[in-house]
């Protein structure tokens, strides 16, 4: 089974913010390895104006850097090609912040003619599902603080690196859950 993870960097955290970079990473659960990742700077669409200098200090991406980015149309198309499915079986892509990542995903696709061909969900949804399948209630209770600590590790605030970190962290969590299942 292969799973995709996504992360966005944005112009700010306000309601008017827009995506400036997106990264994706794929893991293969059979080999338990990170097998693929991509990242793209996004050139702002003409109506995207919101910019917070504090956000720039965090991610280190300047407005000038974005001039070398890809257009929203190209990035949305690439995301659909890499992550999506044109068929009825829409794949799920996992993120660490569904509210923010979902907002920026909608903003990106909102200025294109494309329909999103994947579904975003929080990584905790996936983790809870795996805990329910593989771990006893007691084991899940014991694992939750360890899982939270793994997911709370500082990230570099570059989208591809953050997606890779989330994917690698998930693999570590997956190993913990499987080890707990073997002990049950």
């Amino acid at each position: 089974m292969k799973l995709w993870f996504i992360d966005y960097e944005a112009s700010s955290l306000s309601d008017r913010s827009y995506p400036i970079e997106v990264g994706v990473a794929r893991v293969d659960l059979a080999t338990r390895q990170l097998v693929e990742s991509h990242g793209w700077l996004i050139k702002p669409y003409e109506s995207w104006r919101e910019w917070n200098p504090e956000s720039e200090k965090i991610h280190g991406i300047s407005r000038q850097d974005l001039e070398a980015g890809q257009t929203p149309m190209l990035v949305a198309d690439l995301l659909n090609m890499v992550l999506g499915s044109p068929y009825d079986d829409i794949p799920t892509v996992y993120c660490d912040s569904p509210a923010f990542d979902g907002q920026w995903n909608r903003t990106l696709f909102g200025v294109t003619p494309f329909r999103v061909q994947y579904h975003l969900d929080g990584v905790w949804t996936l983790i809870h599902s795996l805990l329910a399948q593989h771990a006893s209630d007691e084991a899940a209770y014991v694992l939750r603080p360890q899982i939270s600590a793994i997911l709370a590790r500082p990230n570099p605030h570059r989208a591809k690196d953050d997606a890779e970190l989330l994917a690698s962290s998930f693999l570590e969590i997956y190993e913990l859950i499987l080890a707990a299942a073997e002990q049950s």
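The CA atoms of residues 95 and 122 lie 5 Å apart. The first strand starts at residue 2 and ends at 10.
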